[in-house]
Fold this protein.
Amino acid sequence: MKSYNKKLRIVETDVLILGAGLTGLSTAYHLGGREYCVLEKENRPGGLCGSVAHNGFLYDYTGHLLHLRNEYAKELIFSFLKNNLTYRTRNTLIHSFGRYTRYPFQANLFGLPKQIIEECIKGLVESKLKYFNCDRKKMDMSFRDWCVMTFGQGISKYFMIPYNEKLWRVSSSNMTTGWTGGYVPQPLLKEVLEGAYTDNKRLYGYNAKFYYPGRGGIQALIDNISENIKNLETSIKIKTINLKQKIVVTNKGIYRYKKLVSTLPLPVFLGIVSDLPGKIKKISSGLKHNSVLDINIGVSGRDVSSGAHWIYFPEKKYSFYRVGFYNNFSRHLCPSGSSSMYVEVSYRNGKINIRQSVKDALSGLYKANILKKNDIIGSVCPLNIKYAYVIYDANRNYIVEKISSYLVKNSVLTTGRFGGWKYSTMEDAVLDGRTAAQWTE
Ligand SMILES: Cc1cc2nc3c(=O)[nH]c(=O)nc-3n(C[C@H](O)[C@H](O)[C@H](O)COP(=O)(O)OP(=O)(O)OC[C@H]3O[C@@H](n4cnc5c(N)ncnc54)[C@H](O)[C@@H]3O)c2cc1C
């Protein structure tokens, strides 16, 4: 990396990386000895993979658990965290009909009112008979139709549709199934029956077991990776990007690059490109996402979790879709004898009243009997996640494909959860970084 001219700082580098979240840092790490520079707008690296201290409690941007399926990513993450790792078997519940049942709903109807179990089983059997010959993978269908075809009317009505509409904030008829691969457990009919009439403890799904740092929250991972990264500049404000000239203009100088890797949310990146063709700008208005208000709450002197890692709330009478308990990920995240949780409330189009949302969350926690009248709230720390989940609708794939291929032709790769505009995990971010580094060669 060469830097010229003290008054007007001009930096030349082979690879310029925008954003120092996990994807940006992984890209830099995988570039090894090559010339690169990472620009980050915040005063610390990490992005969503970060932790915030408040009144003796340490919070993440809601639960950030390491689900490691890829051997390469697993080894790399282990090498960063060394002995600072805990390994847990998930204990996850669903709250509906005024009671708690096991997750996933479709495999654990046991404990629900008898007529609800019967309706769910009847619906599932009917759908199995009706769609016996259909290949669901080949058919282009809405998430709603996929749910009914896969799980039947009852399971769709009591969990799949209300829960997902609450999370994504979009009608399930307007959502596609592009994000479901591997994330939604699909038990066999005999397993559903077993879980309807017995308290089945079988584990399902990609997140049945997870790793988490023993100390320091998920930020510990970022702190360890950052030690290996040179040329990371924080508190940078990017003013414009010119694709033809291959320059990025910031408050701290001008950066010339040969290849640009952006991990910024795709609409944010496109919004600062000065020479973007009108047709790309136009289609980018079709990119949709939701936001999540992460309401972190610390409770002094009592464990409010009942041993659960997290609980899903599909019903409308609760403002939140999920509540998780940090103290069950690591006991070092809150003072001894206390407990802490994240309450997740999603919204669209930038509109949320934080004060009212905190009030609604607290009243829901009392209603669900998680908080009790005499509990001492030691900390309330809302964190707003503007870009949280990318919405998979009928246009998403076409738009992302058009934009990415245009940018690649202009020496730009946009990648990571929001650069790639997709549903992905921290493990994927590590792997996206490796792919991005290879792309720059
Ligand atoms: C609610 C929620 C829960 C999650 N839970 C899990 C989980 O349990 N397990 C899991 O594996 N994954 C989880 N994830 C996904 C995980 O957070 C992401 O996959 C991963 O952190 C994405 O990293 P990234 O670097 O691609 O994006 P980001 O973390 O968003 O990083 C992008 C970086 O770009 C920076 N930036 C943005 N704009 C600019 C700009 N104009 N100029 C310079 N820099 C800029 C940002 O500050 C940020 O540092 C969760 C995500 C959400 C939203």
